[in-house]
Amino acid sequence: MPIYIVGHKPFDPPKHDAYVPIQVGYGEDFTKVRDNTGDNIAEKNKNFCELTALYWIWKNDHDSKYVGINHYRRYFDFLDAKNKWLYTRNIYPAELDLYTKPGKEFIELGDDEIVLPTPMSCGRRSVYEHYRKYHHIEDMDIAIDIIKKDYPEYSDAVDKALSRHGAYSHNMMIMSKKRFDHYAEWIFHVLFEAEKKIHLTGDPFQDRVFGFLSERLFNVYLEKQQLKVKQIPTIFVDPDLKRVKKRWMYRWFITNKILFPRG
């Protein structure tokens, strides 16, 4: 089972066999797997971010039974997998192998099971209002309209997921390839339709709009599908000693029932 590591510049991946680096963007090759081969949307990387890797996996990995997504600096923290209080921590590069060895229970999943990072709190804001604060809310409104028009059965899930005060983020996940393909077909339909209507401003940050949207819309898919979530903290690889000591945080809530009530 590959856990793909998405990166746009050279990095040292974990030494465990499960990990497969995938290069996105342009430049000289530094990995064996790139998102600009086979059926791909690599030219959209500056707007779709890591989603160009997700698209490549969807269209070109036909052999894996399970797949996962990590980032070149952010990984699932398998060492602390049972720590329900931990959200994320910074680690030194030399510690990476210690934290990233996946247990069997996290890589052999049913089609209704998924591994996700501990959810992010939006504080007093809803997911929708959090997006309004940091991005262009009209882009989210376009995506919502597309979902309610093309997937009316998701309407209630949209309202529930975007009104909560926390969300699963980072586009990190482990799931069966069958489930992954089902999600990919849904999210890329929504985003490609939104791409026809969203106006890019030329701001390098805000023009990463489809990556930002997908992080929130994934929670809509999750709400509708009612998948069984195994959540794990994350680690952020940071060579800076001061930041590793200072920049860590515990979850801002006691249980998921606060942020993710069912029913």
**Largest sheet report:** 7 strands, mixed
In the sheet with the most strands, the strands line up as: 3-2-1-4-10-7-11
Q: State which percent range the strand residues make up.
A: 15-25%
Task: Name the average pLDDT.
Answer: 90
Report the C-alpha radius of gyration, rounded: 18 Å
Domain unit count: 1
Task: Count helical runs.
Answer: 10
Q: What is the name of the CATH architecture?
A: Alpha-Beta Complex
**First CA to last CA: what distance?**
34 Å
Describe the structure.
36% of the residues lie in helices and 19% in strands. It is α/β, with parallel strands linked by helices and 263 residues long. The protein has one domain: Spore Coat Polysaccharide Biosynthesis Protein SpsA, Chain A. Helix 2 (51-60) packs across helix 7 (177-195), helix 6 (155-163) crosses helix 8 and helix 7 (177-195) packs across helix 8. The chain is globular. Mean pLDDT is 90; it is low at 248-263.
Protein topology:
Elements: E1 3-7, E2 19-23, E3 33-34, H1 45-48, H2 51-60, E4 66-71, E5 74-76, E6 86-91, H3 96-99, E7 113-117, E8 120-121, H4 127-134, H5 137-150, H6 155-163, E9 166-167, E10 173-176, H7 177-195, H8 209-225, E11 228-232, E12 234-237, H9 241-246, E13 249-250, H10 256-259
Parallel strand pairs: 1-2, 1-4, 2-3, 6-12, 7-11
Antiparallel strand pairs: 4-10, 5-12, 6-13, 7-10, 8-9
